[in-house]
Amino acid sequence: MLAKIKNYLLTGVLVSAPVFITFWIVYSLVKFFDQLITPLIPFYINPNYYLPRDVPGLGLIILITLLVFIGFITASFFGSFIIKKTESLISKIPLIKIFYKTIKQIIETIFKNNSNAFRDVVLLEYPRKGVWVLGFTTGVVKGAVAKKINQELINVFVPTTPNPTSGFLLMVPKNQLKYLNTKVDDTVKTIVSAGIIDLKSKQKSN
Question: Is 173 left (phi over 0), alpha (psi -120 to 50) or beta?
Answer without folding.
Answer: beta
